[in-house]
Write a structure and sequence with these properties.
By secondary structure, the chain is mostly helical. The chain has twelve helices and two strands; from the N terminus they run αααααααααααββα. The longest helix is centred in the N-terminal third of the chain and has 30 residues.
């Protein structure tokens, strides 16, 4: 396997990890605040659909990005209204959101564009294209450094670089600011937060809004950055994988980020393994190779998570005491 092949797999890992990282960081804020983030799949799918629709109609990638973040945040706040204000079951609310969006997006796509539930293919000016970093041409001939700069570090779209920037910013916001301390406190002991004179509902709604924005970026990456339009169920379970990465990372940004990279690496590897004859076993069936990332998710959660402790108040409706 040549250096270019290795770098191609690693670069694909970064690209495939981007929506997972953004969705996981969004779920982190939600669950740290005590609200189960089971609606990540639906929020991401709705964001991907909104971004592709607005990009196809207006031709503006920035309006499309804003629409993706807006619809995702709206759905996140809707989940908050059901689970925080109305004190409903958070699992039921999250699953209802996923089911609603999974049925609504292809129906609207069929009604609006008459292309079987898909949106029209987007032109390069309607989506985020790969960015060539400074010095790409001058370093192209330099051994090792040139290929790493051009094929691994460079050549990604804007949302990939935003995801890498938002990861440390999210960790800083959660662990190094008073807001982050309050969010973590409201997920552990909301009664203590209430006794301190702070609004539990307000903190949870703000955390859910941040969650919606990050998940909206993840959905936009799928349809107007890595992809060129919306297709039915294009998230392909990534919201659930992001939730699994969050649990595997024990609700901490660093380990959750590593889990996202691991899942994405398996996804990138399965593309390379399709049709390849391996020693002893021969050609691995395509269906098995495609299932590899999801099988890994189940195995990790079933046997390797260990003593992961969720926030104490997660999923528990807060009832103010007099």
């Amino acid at each position: 396997m040549s250096l270019i092949d290795v770098l191609s797999v690693l670069a694909a890992t970064i690209r495939l990890a981007t929506p997972l990282i953004l969705a996981t960081m969004g779920g982190l804020f939600s669950e740290r605040a005590g609200v189960i983030a089971l609606g990540l799949e639906g929020m991401m799918l709705a964001a991907a659909f909104a971004a592709a629709c607005i990009a196809a109609v207006t031709g503006s990638v920035w309006l499309a990005l804003a629409a993706a973040m807006g619809i995702s945040m709206l759905l996140s706040l809707l989940h908050g209204f059901a689970s925080v204000t109305q004190r409903g079951d958070q699992v039921v609310s999250g699953m209802a959101l996923n089911i609603l969006v999974a049925g609504l997006t292809p129906s609207l796509g069929l009604a609006w564009f008459h292309q079987g539930g898909q949106t029209p293919a987007l032109e390069p000016g309607q989506r985020f294209m790969p960015i060539a970093l400074p010095g790409a041409d001058s370093l192209a001939g330099v051994p090792v450094v040139g290929p790493v700069w051009n094929h691994l570090i460079g050549g990604h779209n804007l949302i990939v670089y935003l995801a890498m920037l938002l990861l440390p910013l999210s960790a800083w916001l959660l662990y190094r600011t008073s807001f982050g301390l309050r969010v973590r406190a409201v997920g552990e002991n909301p009664h203590a937060v209430d006794a301190a004179g702070l609004s539990v509902a307000r903190l949870r709604y703000v955390a859910l809004a941040l969650s919606g924005i990050l998940v909206g970026l993840a959905g936009a990456d799928l349809s107007i950055a890595e992809g060129a339009g919306f297709g039915r169920d294009m998230t392909a379970g990534r919201g659930y994988v992001a939730l699994a990465a969050l649990i595997f990372g024990k609700w901490r940004p660093g380990p959750a980020f590593a889990a996202c990279l691991m899942f994405a690496f398996c996804d990138a590897l399965q593309v390379r393994l399709q049709g390849v004859a391996l020693p002893i076993v021969g050609v691995v069936p395509v269906q098995f190779v495609e299932a590899l990332p999801y099988v890994l998710t189940v195995l990790l959660l079933a046997g390797f998570v260990g003593t992961a402790r969720a926030p104490r108040a997660i999923g528990v409706p807060f009832v103010k005491t007099r």
